[in-house]
């Protein structure tokens, strides 16, 4: 094994061991669903031949004047399940159940814990994204040293939201982890399609993995609505016309099929193809009131201001208690300005400052489009990737709450864009004197981002 391959394997093994370390208390299987593992209960329900959970609502809950009022249902509710016509259903999407929980149970006879499932999803996402960066480096930046890839590997593994998702693995974190995994795999196949004459298999697998992401995080449907037409237009301009029918079929059949199946799943549960069950969710918040608030467009300017501050600018905390760097922790009921809810959250510009280099990306894209024709596939890949954080961050800014785990909807993709921006900038201005100082600053900020990401994973251990 040469030094290059050794370093790649060493980086990957270290990251996977670190990933296993965070949920170490949860890496197990059980013969019965783990307490509060909603996906395991849904798996149990499917194996019993129905779509609701194998948990009977307490009579005290059903006898309440308003069983959806969190002030009344606290002692009786099955937290975050959806109560509909005397049965508990799951608002969260099917993707984790169909991809891991159900096959795992059928093959082994055991239920995987949420920690194990999150570990599998995020480990796979890291392996695929690291392999993708290796391919990009080897093709477009062969003169870059191995240290660039090692730094990129650490950033991929720890500078995003992954340590935090792993350290407190619950249904919510599993949904985020599944979405990251399938989105990363989708972009891996998109990269291959852009570099392999739009091979039919690559286009199909890109579309399939992308189309499945709303089955874990529904807001990714917005990404699909923008990204799939964007790729379709790209195919019209760049793919051979003779291949259009097959390529368009490969691109459009997966989302159409997924939409149909998700609509059917909703209809069989709630009598409506559009109803996911969120309206009837039993939470520490009044979800029915939340729906009314979401319909109040006058709150959007306030939401934009608060959400931008919390998701992008809120500083992390420093304390004398290990791990020394952390988040401001709030309970489920904490609100700002009467009806803006807040959980622990740190602004990504303060916790992951390397993403600031993305500000140079528009100029770099323009330069590479004009002067480096051979890099057009990479530039298109970067532009398509940028759609994900733009859409998701924009959507989250509109909502009347801020939650740290939701940064997983955009931060991992910003980290990849930051790495590619740095590589493009180095290739463009690497010999200029000012870049040496910028390079040093980027490395310092990268190390800071990695350390902070690792710390965020440790702060939740007190809850395990």
Automatic annotation (TrEMBL):
<feature type="transmembrane region" description="Helical">
    <location>
        <begin position="116"/>
        <end position="136"/>
    </location>
</feature>
<keyword id="KW-0472">Membrane</keyword>
<feature type="transmembrane region" description="Helical">
    <location>
        <begin position="304"/>
        <end position="324"/>
    </location>
</feature>
<feature type="transmembrane region" description="Helical">
    <location>
        <begin position="172"/>
        <end position="191"/>
    </location>
</feature>
<feature type="transmembrane region" description="Helical">
    <location>
        <begin position="246"/>
        <end position="268"/>
    </location>
</feature>
<keyword id="KW-0812">Transmembrane</keyword>
<feature type="transmembrane region" description="Helical">
    <location>
        <begin position="440"/>
        <end position="461"/>
    </location>
</feature>
<feature type="transmembrane region" description="Helical">
    <location>
        <begin position="6"/>
        <end position="25"/>
    </location>
</feature>
<feature type="transmembrane region" description="Helical">
    <location>
        <begin position="377"/>
        <end position="398"/>
    </location>
</feature>
<feature type="transmembrane region" description="Helical">
    <location>
        <begin position="148"/>
        <end position="166"/>
    </location>
</feature>
<protein>
    <recommendedName>
        <fullName>Glycosyltransferase RgtA/B/C/D-like domain-containing protein</fullName>
    </recommendedName>
</protein>
<feature type="transmembrane region" description="Helical">
    <location>
        <begin position="220"/>
        <end position="240"/>
    </location>
</feature>
<keyword id="KW-1133">Transmembrane helix</keyword>
<feature type="transmembrane region" description="Helical">
    <location>
        <begin position="88"/>
        <end position="104"/>
    </location>
</feature>
<feature type="transmembrane region" description="Helical">
    <location>
        <begin position="344"/>
        <end position="365"/>
    </location>
</feature>
<feature type="transmembrane region" description="Helical">
    <location>
        <begin position="410"/>
        <end position="428"/>
    </location>
</feature>
